[in-house]
C-alpha cells in the first residue's frame, strides 16, 4: 500500500498537472469504488469544475474543486494515478478516467480494485475520516513533546501497533514503520510504556528522517507503486531491513529476521533491536 511518502509525491505531481484544469467528463469502469453516488450522479457533480488545489491528509488525496466540492481518493493496496497529456485508451486495470481540458486525462489503475472515491461539500470536511486521523508526522508542529504526549496516552500497546494506527499518527505503513524502528534501535514488539525519553527522541527523529528520505527518493516501489508518469521510486534501494530476511544487518552484520508482529510481517535485527 502506498504510504505517506508515495502519496506526498503523487500530490506534488498532481499539483503541477491538474491545478487550473477543468474536468470535462468522468468514466467509471468499477462503480463500487464510489461511495454515496452513482457514477452518473458523480459525473454530473464534478464535470465542468476546475481543480483549485490538492492536499494530502495521511494517505488520502484531496482534490479541491471550484464551487466548494472536494474529491477524496484513497489508493488502498494497489491503486495508482497516471497522468496522460494526450488521449490514451483505458487499460485492463483502469477503474476510472477523468477527462481534462487539452485532451489530457487522469487514469486510476487498480489491479485489486480496493481504491475508493468520495465527493464532499467542503464544509463537511472536518467530520470526514481524513480529518479525524492522528497528526501528520512531518507537520511543523509535530515536535518531540507532542509525540511524547501521544505515546503516554497508550503505554500498554506495542510500539509497532501504535505507529501503524492511523488514529495515533497518520501516514505510516508497514515499510516505513519497520525502517523507522530499525534506525531507532527499538524492537517492534516493545511496549510503548517501556521506552525511555531518549528512545522516544530517537524514534521521533528516525521517523521524520525516514519519511523525508522516502519523499526525496520518490517513494518505495517494492510492489506496485509508480508515480504519476508511471515511474518507480528509488527508496526501495535504501531499505535496511524491510524484506531483507536472511541478509546481513548493515549495522552489526547479524542476520535480519522476519516475525509477525501487530498482525503484520515485520523485519528486524534481533541484535540491534533488543526486546
Concise summary:
The chain is 25% helix and 22% strand.
Plain-language structure description:
Strands 1-6-7-5 form a four-stranded antiparallel β-sheet. It has a four-stranded antiparallel β-sheet with strand order 2-3-4-8, covered by helices on one side. A two-stranded antiparallel ribbon has the order 9-10. 25% of the residues lie in helices and 22% in strands. The mean pLDDT is 96. It folds into two domains: 4-132, MutM-like, N-terminal (N-terminal domain of MutM-like DNA repair proteins, Alpha-Beta Barrel), CATH 3.20.190; 144-268, Helicase, Ruva Protein, domain 3 (Orthogonal Bundle). It is α+β, with helices and mostly antiparallel strands and 275 residues long. The longest helix is centred in the last third of the chain and has 20 residues, at 197-216. Helix 1 runs parallel beside helix 6 (197-216) and helix 5 crosses helix 6. The protein has six helices and ten strands, in the order αβαβββββββααααββ. It has helices spanning 4-18, 39-46, 144-152, 159-164, 174-184, 197-216, and strands at 23-28, 51-57, 60-65, 69-74, 79-84, 94-100, 105-110, 116-121, 257-261, 264-268. The two termini are 28 Å apart.
Helices and strands in order:
Blueprint: H1 4-18, E1 23-28, H2 39-46, E2 51-57, E3 60-65, E4 69-74, E5 79-84, E6 94-100, E7 105-110, E8 116-121, H3 144-152, H4 159-164, H5 174-184, H6 197-216, E9 257-261, E10 264-268
Antiparallel strand pairs: 1-6, 2-3, 3-4, 4-8, 5-7, 6-7, 9-10
